[in-house]
Amino acid sequence: MKPAPFAYCRPATLDEALDALARLGPDARVLAGGQSLVPALNMRLAQPSALVDINRVPGLDGIRLAPEGLVIGALARQEAVLRSPLVARHAPLIAQAMPHVAHLALRTRGTLGGSLALGDPAAELPACAVALDAVIRVARRGGEREVPAARFFRGIYATALEPGEILTAAVVPLRDASWRFHFGELARRHGDYALVGLATAARLDGGAIAEARLVFAGVGLTPVRATRGEAALVGRRPDAAALAAAGRALDADLDPPSDVHASAALRRHLARVLLARALAALVGAA
Prior knowledge:
With 286 residues, the protein is of the alpha+beta class. The protein is 36% helix and 26% strand. The strands form four sheets. A five-stranded antiparallel beta sheet has the order 4-5-10-6-7. Helix 10 packs antiparallel against helix 11 and helix 11 (240-253) packs antiparallel against helix 12. The N and C termini lie far apart (53 Å).
């Protein structure tokens, strides 16, 4: 199939892009990597009145350290994020998750900001953003605002972005050497959306877990933070007893859907499998 007709503009600056969105109205869409939007256009699942192509806007593809943390520009290609030494050092959870994102050809064009703005609850990067307490920067005419990742994702393909706004960057707070990270997912084939994914961040103190973040993908309408499972881990060493306690707590944290890909029971089982793998990785770190 081919997309429905739409207007197209390619602004050269962020201000021009924001002006174009204001002029074209709420039915306009931002085009970055296009790895999700273009297939949706071709299948006519999306029929915007106009596309605002931001690929020529300078300054949105950088990856840099700043006082507030690691700043990853919205137009940073996923493959560039995967290969970035700064990301590997200061956001290793994202570096671990990136090889699971689609395939090389798609990562070469797909962007970090596009994945976050899409808000797919089965995707890897939204779960990582929540686990890392990232802040999403959003530009609009006349200014900028920041949204904590925990409040950015509102539902399936629904985010806190408002009409006329453009996601410009994600800011990852820096962590000290006591923090450890692990990302894992289970999918039927590499590159498929995960049946279940788990982004884990944990602070170790004397071999015990002092703080934990467990954020699951593919088990709800948004990335799901397993707060009861986290509480069950705090103060414990990452061993079999901790796994059993946290596994029981997941029953209250997770209410996954059943669909043609997996039943709710299977997703609960896979969540425990991923939790076991994450704790095994923490044992090695400890």
